[in-house]
Structure formats: structure tokens, C-alpha cells
Write a structure and sequence with these properties.
- The protein is an alpha/beta fold.
- It has 2 domains: 2-180, Leucine Aminopeptidase, subunit E, domain 1; 196-501, Aminopeptidase, CATH 3.40.630.10.
- Helix content is 38%, strand content 21%.
- The chain contains 15 helices and 20 strands.
- The chain has helices at residues 32-40, 44-50, 88-105, 124-138, 165-190, 198-212, 221-227, 230-236, 278-281, 289-303, 349-362, 376-382, 394-407, 440-452, 484-501, and strands at 2-6, 17-22, 61-65, 74-79, 108-113, 155-161, 215-219, 244-251, 259-263, 265-269, 309-319, 330-333, 339-342, 368-372, 386-391, 410-413, 431-432, 457-461, 467-468, 478-479.
- The strands form 4 sheets. Strands 7, 8, 9, 10, 11, 14, 15, 16 and 18 form a 9-stranded mixed sheet that branches. A 6-stranded mixed sheet has the order 1-6-5-2-4-3, with helices on both faces. Strands 12-13-17 form a 3-stranded mixed sheet.
- Bound molecules: ligand BES, manganese (II) ion and zinc ion.
- The site of zinc ion has 5 residues, from strand 10.
Length: 502
């Protein structure tokens, strides 16, 4: 769907759907588009307010049909809650919820009016970006394998109506790039593993690279063997699908090698010989969400001409219990020479990431950020809406958390005290791949830290947040596309800060 911008007044919209926003207040209609539309409809909105049906409560969407009294077919009034708490995240979610509601009613276009109260305190470019993201994210459907009985209804196009055409166009451009990148990540993560093999993941990354001007290199198993990636290849041994180490480069300026975005790319996680129970296995087609996120993020950075050098690294393989699979108690040697005792083949994410981190260090990249659906333990600790962050550099971690706050993706830091180091000591190798019953998300991060070495590094464990079981605001059921927008924001903020200080 195309999103555009115009300076048309809300009352002049001829769209099938006009979306306006109201706060929760004694008079939710005071000023702005709500006031104008109420006048146009001879006080119909005021009547709904008086009846207590329209309150401006957060999440509320009231649909009012104009029945020929106004140029638009219907008006959707979305509540934003308390006026003091209205921010971009509320607008993004309200837009998504209202857009889905409009789509469920009938085919047609959608205009979103933002000029005047209650949004006039927010920057118009930022608003247009958040609304564009809300539209693209909220209306996303993964329906490529579906043959519905009736053609599904759709919003054919949307416009944002505001004051300043140039500011609006810039926000729409940024929002479209971020929304499309997030949906690209969702498409990869939602695709079942028989279709999205490591080979197919590399092929889709290649197509994206061609479209956006990124460099791409795919290391085959033989290349990985030459580099000494015994940990990554160990996981791949149980599968008939060839493993791929996917590498994408964006050169945005400067001579430094730049930073690394590393994503776990397990296209299906059976657990390997430490086989998962059936019920925990069904969602494991999404165990490459971290890899999908970094591929999508670097694509967005290329489209935005980000002034930074960025390399994305995705170790992609299945984790299968084949006849050649690694077994509990096997010892693997990673690219940096460290030996790993594999006590549980289901702790495979850290094994493939170990070599990806070594490879990033080998390329001289800094800082490193990895994103992975790494542990069920992080979901036990933080739930399904907050991503866990662990780092060897608290200042760097704070940058990522701040970028998440702007993007509306919640991130919370877990500690990395020395005490946890003992939990991954092995009597027969340099490190073991499980840390026992307690602090599972942290011991996984402690394992990764061994391979990040002294390079500033942040680890995001998104095993709780990569998937949603219901539609809610800009999140829709299935793959969430977390943390694509945070990664892009973090790289852009960093580049801006470096420019300032140089
Ligand atoms: N991919 C899983 C983690 C996961 C669990 C992601 C649930 C999404 C939802 C990971 O490879 C895994 O199996 N981790 C194990 C580690 C354990 C064996 C130390 C886990 O969390 O149980
Ligand atoms: Mn696993
Ligand atoms: Zn896994």
C-alpha cells in the first residue's frame, strides 16, 4: 500500500475513511480536526461524547458514518488517552488499530488528519513517520499461502493530512522505509522452514541487496571450515540443508571497518539430538528472527543512505538430529581456538553466534551487536513484550535501550556480574554451552561474551518478543519484526553523534 501526504483540510477529505485523533478530556473534541468534523456532521460527535460513547480513552475507535452529509464515507475517531501522555508510540498504535478496523469494514482509501490538537505539540515529520509505520505495520498480513473463500478487504491507499508538505513527505519516506523493512523481516520469519532454508534465506538477502545497493557475500560450509568455524559447522552437521554464513555490507562513509549487526539464523530448531518436545517445536521456524532482523535493518540503512559503515552477519543453518549430528558431550573448537563442551545440542544459537562473533572480530568490526531468539529463560524473566539486553559496555547498552524507547520497542538490561562466569566453566573444555537451571538468559550471554572478547558488545535476547499471539496496535499476530526499527535508529543516532563530535 502506498502512503502519501497532502495539506488538504480534514473536512475536505473525500476518502472512504477519515481517521482523526482525540484525547481523553472533558471535551475531547476541542479544536483540531475533531471540532471541524463535528461541525460538518451537525454535532454528531458531540452527541456521542454526551452519551458517554466517545471518551478519547486509549485504544478506543469510534466509527461514524457520514451518510452523505460530508465528503468522506465514514470517520474513525481514535482515542489517545491522557493529553499529557500522548507520544509517538500512542499515535503509531492508535493508527494501526484504527486502520485494521477500517479495513475490516470495507475496501477503500484512508486519510489521517494530524493538523491541530491534540497532536500539535509533536514534530510533524516524526508524526508522519510514526503514522506511516503504524499503517504499514498494523495492516501487515502474512497471507501468501492462504486461499480465502472471499477476497480479503484492503485499504488501497493512505494519505496523511497536515500543514507542511515537505515535513510530511520526509516523515512518510522514513516511515515507509522502516515499515517496509520490518514487514520484510516479518515475511522471512513467518515463512515456514521447508520454504525458508538457509539457501533460500541467502537468496532473499541477495535479492534485497541487489535492490538496495548492498554488497553481499555468502560463505559456504567449505569457506567456514577453512576459517575454522567448528562451532557453527557443528550445529550444521545434523542437517541435509547446507549452512550459509550470510554477510551484507553497507559502506556509508569513513575508513573504519565499522560496526557489526549479527543475527541468529536457525531456520528451524528441533533441538538436535537433545530433541525438543513437540509442543515447544512448532514455533521454531522463527528461530532465524534475529538474522531476519539484521538483514532487514541493514537494507533500511542502505535505503536511508546512513552515514556509517555497517556489516550484517547471519550464521544460517537448521538444527536437526541427523545421523551426523553433534551429540551431548561432544567438544567443538570455535574460530578463535576456544573449545566448547556441548552439553545440550538445543543450546545451538550460542554455538553459531560464537563463530559469527569471532568472524566480526576477525574483520575488525566494532562495536558488535547480536540479536537472537536465544533462551526461553528471557521470556520467563521479562515476558513477551520486553527484549532482554546484556552487554560488556553499559554506555553502549544505554544507547540501544534509548533507541528502543524512541522506536516503541521495549528493552531491559540484565546483569553480567562475574559470579555468573562460574556457571559456564567446563572440566574438559574452555567453556560449556549450558549454565544449568538458574539465570539462563544471562549464562547464554556469558557464553557469547567469551567470543566477543574485549570488543564493545551488546546482546539482545528476543526469544520472548519475536512472536505475538494476537493483534495489538502496530503488532500483529505472528512475527513481530522486533528489533529492526531499534537497530536502524541506534545506527543513525550513533552516526549523528559521531558527526557532532568530529
Ligand atoms: N531457540 C531456542 C530458544 C527459544 C525458546 C526461542 C522459546 C523462542 C521461544 C534456543 O535455541 C533454545 O532451545 N534454548 C534452550 C537453551 C537451553 C537448552 C540451555 C532453552 O531456552 O531451553
Ligand atoms: Mn535450541
Ligand atoms: Zn534456537
Amino acid at each position: 500500500m502506498e502512503v502519501g501526504a497532502a495539506t488538504t483540510a480534514a473536512a475536505d477529505s473525500t476518502a472512504a475513511n477519515l481517521l482523526i485523533f482525540v484525547p481523553r478530556a472533558d471535551d475531547p473534541l476541542a479544536g483540531g480536526p475533531a471540532h471541524a468534523i463535528d461541525a460538518l456532521l451537525d454535532g454528531a460527535l458531540s452527541l456521542l461524547v454526551a452519551a458517554g460513547e466517545l471518551t478519547g480513552k486509549r485504544g478506543q475507535v469510534t466509527v461514524v458514518h457520514t451518510l452523505g452529509r460530508a465528503p468522506m464515507t465514514r470517520v474513525l475517531v481514535a482515542g489517545l488517552g491522557d493529553p499529557g501522555a500522548i507520544d509517538l508510540e500512542r499515535v503509531r498504535n492508535a493508527t494501526a488499530t484504527a486502520a485494521r478496523r477500517a479495513r475490516a469494514l470495507a475496501d477503500g482509501t484512508l486519510d489521517v488528519a494530524i493538523a491541530g490538537p491534540p497532536l500539535d505539540a509533536l514534530d510533524e515529520t516524526d508524526l508522519a513517520q510514526a503514522i506511516t509505520e503504524g499503517l504499514l505495520l498494523g495492516l501487515y498480513r502474512f497471507d501468501r499461502h492462504l486461499h480465502p473463500k472471499e477476497a480479503p478487504k484492503s485499504i488501497s491507499g493512505a494519505r496523511i493530512l497536515g500543514h507542511d508538505a515537505a515535513a510530511l513527505a520526509e516523515g512518510v519516506r522514513r516511515g515507509a522505509i522502516l515499515g517496509e523493512a520490518t514487514n520484510f523481516c516479518r515475511d522471512l520469519a513467518n515463512e515456514p522452514s521447508n520454504l525458508l532454508t538457509p539457501t533460500e534465506m541467502a537468496a532473499r538477502a541477495e535479492t534485497m541487496a541487489r535492490d538496495t545497493g548492498l554488497e553481499i557475500q555468502v560463505l559456504e560450509e567449505s569457506d567456514a571450515a577453512e576459517l575454522g568455524m567448528g562451532s557453527f559447522l557443528g550445529v550444521a552437521k545434523g542437517s541435509h540443508q547446507p549452512a550459509k554464513m550470510i554477510i551484507l555490507r553497507h559502506r556509508g562513509g569513513g575508513d573504519e571497518p565499522g560496526l557489526a549487526l549479527i543475527g541468529k539464523g536457525i531456520t528451524f530448531d528441533t533441538g538436535g539430538i537433545s530433541l525438543k518436545p513437540s509442543a515447544s517445536m512448532v514455533s521454531m521456524k522463527q528461530d532465524m528472527s534475529g538474522g531476519a532482523a539484521v538483514i532487514a535493518a541493514i537494507g533500511a540503512l542502505a535505503r536511508l543512505n546512513a552515514p556509517a559503515n555497517v556489516t550484517a552477519i547471519v550464521p544460517a543453518t537448521e538444527n536437526m538430529p541427523g545421523g551426523s549430528a553433534i551429540k551431548p558431550s561432544d567438544v567443538l573448537t570455535a574460530m578463535n581456538g576456544k573449545t566448547i563442551e556441548v552439553l545440550n545440542t538445543d543450546a545451538e544459537g550460542r554455538l553459531v553466534l560464537a563463530d559469527a562473533l569471532c568472524y566480526a572480530n576477525h574483520l575488525g568490526l566494532t562495536p558488535l551487536i547480536d540479536v537472537a531468539t536465544l533462551t526461553g529463560a528471557v521470556a520467563v524473566a521479562l515476558g513477551t513484550t520486553t527484549t532482554g539486553l546484556m552487554t560488556n559496555d553499559d554506555a553502549l547498552g544505554a544507547e540501544v535501550i534509548a533507541a528502543g524507547a524512541v522506536s516503541g520497542e521495549k528493552i531491559w538490561q540484565l546483569p553480567m556480574f562475574d559470579d555468573y562466569d562460574d556457571l559456564i566453566k567446563s572440566p574438559i573444555a574452555d567453556v560449556k554451552n549450558t549454565g544449568g537451571r538458574y539465570a539462563g538468559a544471562i549464562t547464554a550471554a556469558k557464553f557469547l561474551e567469551v567470543f566477543a572478547g574485549d570488543t564493545p558488545w551488546v546482546h539482545l535476547d528476543m526469544a520472548g518478543t519475536d512472536d505475538a499471539d494476537k493483534d495489538s496496535g502496530a503488532t500483529v499476530r505472528g512475527a513481530t519484526g522486533v528489533p529492526v526499527r531499534t537497530l536502524v535508529r541506534w545506527v543513525l543516532d550513533r552516526a549523528a553523534k559521531q558527526k557532532e563530535s568530529s
